[in-house]
Amino acid sequence: MKLRKHWWAILFSVVLIAFTVYVILDTFVITTVYQTVSEPEATTESYSTNSNEVTDSTEADTSTEQLDSEISETIITESSYQDENISIEITEYYENDTAIYVADITLSSAEYLQTAFAQNAYGKNVTEKTSEIAESAGAILAINGDFYGAQEKGYVIRNGVIYRSEGTSDQEDLVIYADGSFGIISEDEISAEELLADEAVQTLSFGPALLVNGSVSVSSGEEVGKAKASNPRTAIGIIDDLHYVFVVSDGRTDESAGLSLSELAEFMQGLGVQTAYNLDGGGSSTMYFNGEIINNPTSDGKKIKERSVSDIVYIGY
Predict the structure, then answer these.
(1) How confident is the model at residue 228 (pLDDT cuts 50, 70, 90)?
(2) What pLDDT shows up at residue 230?
(3) Total-model pTM
């Protein structure tokens, strides 16, 4: 009898350990693709700048000459990009013992502010490095996104498509609308479907909001979960119509301590940002520009190495 109880205890322990290992692997390791994202088809049609109608054949005949002219007018340096639709200027700051990289962006249309998934797929534990996702998307400039794949809930609207509509109580999201404007919403006050009807194109579900109407909206002691007060950070902000900033700070090293949320908010306020939102930080914080990593991403402060993430926000065609 005692022997039978002994074996039942061993069997129960084995099953419990196996179940625990499976849960850990399912949560952090096992890749599950829920939906492959179809890439938009390239078009050779020429469009008028004043309407959505296709131009007539006479205008189309000059498209090759116009394209050659546009290419010749593109100017790229180590810290800037300029063409007729996109202007990017990257500046490095050093404040609060921290290296901060700011990409000042002006667009002719909100269509050039986009997002992309790792491996071009929406799913669980589907990840790639920011630079790899950026290269696949043809991004000129990119930062890591909200790492939606690390959460079971929270709205995921990307490029006008709802991928996850289950919200979280008290979750504060950034919404990017079709006209390029920013809004801060609470997921328990509006549905993903309602956001899409309001012409939301992107939602980023990490947070918190750093600035609302130009005012700091985080307290000096507020942090994300159990994050340390000083950390590598990634944030996005809007200054004016179609005028944005991507901000990434280094951290966890002797050369760069990192920022608190309030320090990040105050820094972006000094840039003239009206609405700013905190994205996934720590080892995820990465800025990519013109084929290069601009900052020094690190998880432990010892190795400068990109962390694989589930998504990016980028500028490109």
Answers:
(1) low
(2) 86
(3) 0.81
Omega prior to 208 cis, within 30 of 0? yes
Count how many residues are written for the chain.
317
310/300 Cα distance (integer angstroms): 20
Give the pLDDT confidence score for residue 223 in this predicted structure: 76
Lowest mean pLDDT among 8-12, 107-111, 273-277: 8-12
- Cα first-last separation, the chain: 73
